[in-house]
Amino acid sequence: MGAKVAGRRLDAEEVALWRRVTAGVRPLTPAAPAPAPIARQVPEPPPQRVSQPPLPPVRAVARARAVPGETLDGGWDRRLSRGLVPPDRTIDLHGHTLVSAHHALDHALDRAAQDGTRLILLVTGRPPRADDRESDRPRRGAIRASIGDWLAGSVHSGRIAAVRNAHPRHGGAGALYVVLRRNRNGG
User: Fold this and answer.
1) Fewest beta carbons within 10 Å, which of 52, 83, 160, 173?
2) Who wins on pLDDT, 107 or 82?
3) SS (H, E, C) 18-78
4) pLDDT for 170-181, tens place per residue?
5) The whole model's pTM is what?
6) Which DSSP helix (H) or strand (E) runs through 5?
């Protein structure tokens, strides 16, 4: 029986030529024992699609406590948006590096939690403009861009009820209000 190449059988002359070519060839690795014959495997049928009810929203399942910014009532939101609530404490992060600003924010949140502060005015500077992102000038707004992550990762994140943009009389686009929850443990 002749060998098969590229969809056709080799004739006797081609088989003899091929044997002469391969007779002097040594394998690079020791010859492995011939594999045992494999029983004919029946292909598995493709999995059938079964319609399942939609999963519940991840945020309802994954988080037991409310996310900062979702727990204020309408009265607080209205008074903040009109600039009617005076901040109890101001944290100004102008002139800080990212590291020193993060440290200053953590320290101020520690003090605010101890004092029972409810409203913090966090002065961050204005967010970066679109033309700043595409230019060769130094990037502006790095502290402002990091604030959300810093607050979420803070040991006091459970005490943060909301983060809102400040009213123009309190700094506008260059500042944020951080509303802390009332301490229910008497402190």
Assistant:
1) 52
2) 107
3) HHHHHHCCCCCCCCCCCCCCCCCCCCCCCCCCCCCCCCCCHHHHHCCCCCCCCCCCHHHHH
4) 778 788 888 888
5) 0.55
6) strand 4-5
